[in-house]
Structures are given as structure tokens and as C-alpha cells.
Write a structure and sequence with these properties.
Elements: H1 7-22, H2 27-39, H3 43-56, H4 61-73, H5 77-90
Helix pairs in contact: 1-2, 2-3, 3-4, 4-5
Length: 94
Amino acid sequence: MRLKNTNRFVQAKTLLYILVAEQPRHSASQLQLAIVESESNDLLIAINRLENLILLESKNRGAQILLLDLYLKAEQTDEALVTCEKASRESPVR
């Protein structure tokens, strides 16, 4: 169920922005905000947020998977390939 463009969605997004502003290194809040941004079609903003999150927490698989998905939605295939290569180097299949 998408909450997009509802009053509750806007309130949730605003609260997440406040939380992230107060605690910019809180990775769960950053990830959740990126999800909300992607739901409201702010793909480039969400991509930028996830790229910064991965710089802070390079092994965050949730962020890497969402980033890959958003790269593909934004038709940024080169960036998607680089993300896959980095992830496979960090966690090779056994």
C-alpha cells in the first residue's frame, strides 16, 4: 500500500527529515528516508542519500540493494554495474 501524497505520508517524511537532521549518522533513519523518498519518486535524492549512507556503512546490504534498484529505475546502468561489482568483491559467493 502506498501512502504517497497523503497527509500521513507527508507527516512521516517530515519527521524522518527532522530525525536525520538531528542524528545524521543514524543509518536506519537514513535508509528509511531513502525508501520514503523513492516512494515519492525523488529517485535522485534517494540515490544520493544511499550513496552517502554506504560511504558511512559500506556493508549495509539493505542500502546496497535499494541503491541498485533505484539506479535501475533511474536508468543509471553503469552505476548499477559498479554497485554489483563492489558488493560481490566485499561478499563473494561461496
